[in-house]
Amino acid sequence: MRKLTPFCTLEQLDSMKQLWLPPQALGEFLMPAQSAFKSDTARDRVLDDYHLLLARWPVSYESRFIDTDFGKAHLIASGNPTASPLVLLHGGGGNATMWIHNIAILAAKFRVYAPDVIGDVGRSTGVRPSYASGGYVRWLAQVLDGLGLEQTALAGTSFGSWLAADFALKHPERVRGLALLAPPHIEPLRLSFMLRAVLATIAPTDSRVRSFYRLVSSLHAPQPTELVMQDFVTRWRSQRQSPPPPPRISADDLRRLPPRTLFLLGQDDALYDVNKAAARIRANAPACEVALLAQAGHTLTVDRPREVSEALMEFLAEVPAPAAL
């Protein structure tokens, strides 16, 4: 049987954003939405789950707001305030509470800041920037400024890994260590994944969204708790539009990534061929570390939380201490 190949690159896919939108939202790229949420009721549902997850946050935390040119940025801070900083960037369609599975291990060593990324279904305000505008990077720079961070270790998962990488390319002097988990911008997306994502977006029934989660997770991983699963369903069904995939990283940008960069890929990631992705990274960024995590899908922070957290701790232990302010 002939092997199916991706039907388009991420750059081509980004020009077909209407595939990711329900029909009533096709015009929203012409006039950006003022909220990531479909309605105030949808926002309330997501924030109800947000607070339920925070009630189960395994370590003490602070909820903070920082003023930016884009609106108020909200973040969750945990760990010793004098410890080395680590900024965690969540995946698209998510918010800071997705780090609930990893925060206990990471906060034991670092002062961890987990912002709700602008334009997504969290507590930060502001319109989702376009990828080409550079708005995401400017927003993150202003968040770090508001925290008083000249330098920080930076880790992101899925969309968050694209943002972390883009920030590191534009502000290498501010990133002392970079960890990219399940990056979606290395290889073209598989047709099978694209079709399932489109179906889950156009008709986001409870069963279809749960089925989509099973696709992006690993069949070999433990099932998430019902609260975590319900939170995923609520967020997916409450967003005004699912985030379009970020542009594919060029070979030149791979070469320009800081040498202190970790790529952590789930062996069962459904988005693309992870072995091809790993080979592309190694060919273009040989100084970077690449690791494949067994029995983990695209949702590797949930599929294998301890293994992911320990991999981050091991990698960041070798990163130099941040420069003094």
UniProtKB/TrEMBL annotation:
Keyword list, A-Z: Hydrolase
Q: Which Pfam families does the UniProt record give? A: Abhydrolase_6 (PF12697)
SUPFAM superfamilies attached here? Answer: alpha/beta-Hydrolases
Q: Name one GO molecular function term.
A: hydrolase activity
- Domain named AB hydrolase-1 is located at 86-311
A GO CC term assigned to this protein in UniProt:
membrane
**Name the UniProt record assigns to this protein:** Alpha/beta hydrolase
Q: Where does this protein come from, organism-wise?
A: Aminobacter anthyllidis
Q: What is the lineage of its organism?
A: Bacteria, Pseudomonadati, Pseudomonadota, Alphaproteobacteria, Hyphomicrobiales
